[in-house]
Amino acid sequence: MRKTVSLLLLAALAISCSTRRGTAATEGVSAPRFADITLCYGGSLRKEPVRWTADRFAPSVTFQDAQGREQWLFEAFLCLDAHEGVTGKGLGLNPDPNQHNGNKASWSYFLDYWMAPGGALSALDAAVAQAAARLGDPPRKRQVVMMMPDPVQFEVFADKESPTIYWGDGLDFSRSEDQVKAYRWYIDQCRERFAALAPKYLELTGFYVLSEDLVARPDGLNYAYKRWDRILPPVATYLHGLQYGFYWIPWNFAPGYDMKQELGFDEVWMQPNYYWDETGQKPLDKTVKAILEHDISMEFELEYSACTAVMKQPGMLAPDAGWQMTKTLADVPAFRGRFREYMTAFRSAGLYGRKPIALYSGYNTLWQLARSEEPDDQAFYREICQYIVESPLRTKE
Questions:
Q1: How many domains does the chain have?
Q2: For the whole model, what pTM was predicted?
Q3: Helix 54-61 and helix 120-135: axis angle, to 10°?
């Protein structure tokens, strides 16, 4: 049985963390400009559906509550993926010996997916425009956070003899300063392309580090090949000088999760990974306690395994904690129950209304729930949306 952290302890930690101050790696670290953000995976041909359309974005832009009243939903959208969709090269550090890391062209392909005219951000802008035709313009623009691909030292990370000069422009990724140069090129490209796209309802507000494991200490695994503690602070300085936010979502207790200020992040959301946990290996109370101690936030996790309409399909299986496809329709209530525990724990810890919410919902789960003909799916979708829009941290809309 999982241990329960008392509400008194959680409240005390919340108070202490709200007044806690550390030494930031950079000046200008500030609170996010949004109360909630949804993760949007796109650009990889390895996933379905491949394209983001206005219809696919729509259930993340607005929702209808139980009384039939339409409300604005997510304030921010995180654009990310692990592979680019032209050559299939990786955008993040990957130990697969057959995985080649993305070069400058790969990073540019990813930006094309999101920022080219008619691309994914055009679809998001169209979805907001369609909602605005019904509701009137939103009180503020929807915020866009762009993922930054990992500047991996080796062309094939598993092969330490593979080239370090593979990205382009003569940059050598054995040099941390060249990795920073690549990041600066990417940031500038994002700014230029977004300005050229000129979406009516969107604002570029920040950047996100893709790697979920920042080995930021010299005694850490593969430190000599990652060196994030040398790379990220100057990137944070550059971003903050341009008035952009800097964000990260580590896996559960990933190295570096407790170094938000040292690395220059404006917000960190730790993954509980509890959604898939059936054996008590990742107790939620332990995660919440660490989140409070280090003044970070929590990612909410959800996949198609919580959608009745999807799991009813013949032969449909979903992953368990070991990423084996063993879960069936009978497991839907358990998955929903663990997601509801996230909502309860976030509120009980004093994080609700104090910290921004980040939602991981797989590749298409919100759309699947919202468009489902199953009443329990629609009710669960509304429950999630209501929790998001009722957060006291939200901009009043």
A1: 1
A2: 0.92
A3: 50
Place of tokens 């409300």: 71
Strands 76-80 and 297-301: unpaired
Range of the domain at 92: 7-388
211 touches 136 (CB < 8 A): no
The rounded distance, in Å, linking the Cα atoms of 173 and 224 is 12
Q: What's the pLDDT at 23? A: 41
H or E element, residue 61 = helix 54-61
Q: What is the mean pLDDT of each run of 10 residues along the chain (397 residues)?
A: 31 35 48 92 88 98 95 98 94 91 97 97 98 96 98 94 97 97 98 98 97 70 78 96 96 92 95 94 96 98 98 97 95 98 98 97 97 98 97 76
3-state SS assignment for residue 292:
helix
393 within domain boundaries? no
Nearest alpha-carbon partner for 239 in 21, 22, 25 = 25
Single out the residue of 195, 214, 17, 51 nearest to residue 119, CA to CA.
Answer: 51
Q: Which residues contact 93 (CB under 8 A, 6 or more apart)?
A: 101, 150, 152, 157, 211, 226
Asked whether residue 201 is domain-assigned, the answer is yes
Using the structure block, give the residue that is written with the tokens 């570096």. Answer: 256
* Spatial distance between the Cα atoms of 252 and 159, rounded to a whole number of angstroms: 27
Spatial neighbors of 11 by CB under 8 A, at least 6 apart, are 349, 350
Report pLDDT for 12.
35
CATH number for the domain including 233?
Answer: 3.20.20
At residue 221, the 3 state secondary structure works out as coil
Residue 306 lies in a domain: yes
Q: What per-residue confidence (pLDDT) applies to 369?
A: 98
Q: Is 241 exposed, middle or buried (0-12, 13-18, 19+ CB in 10 A)?
A: exposed
Position 55 scores a pLDDT of 98
* Residue pointed to by tokens 């060196």: 227
Could you tell me which residues are beta bridge partners of residue 297?
269
H-state helical runs in 198-314: 223-226, 228-241, 260-263, 284-293, 308-311
Examine residue 370 and state whether it is found in any structural domain, yes or no. Answer: yes
Q: Where are the alpha helices (DSSP H) in 84-142?
A: 104-115, 120-135
Q: Are 329 and 309 in contact (CB under 8 A)?
A: no
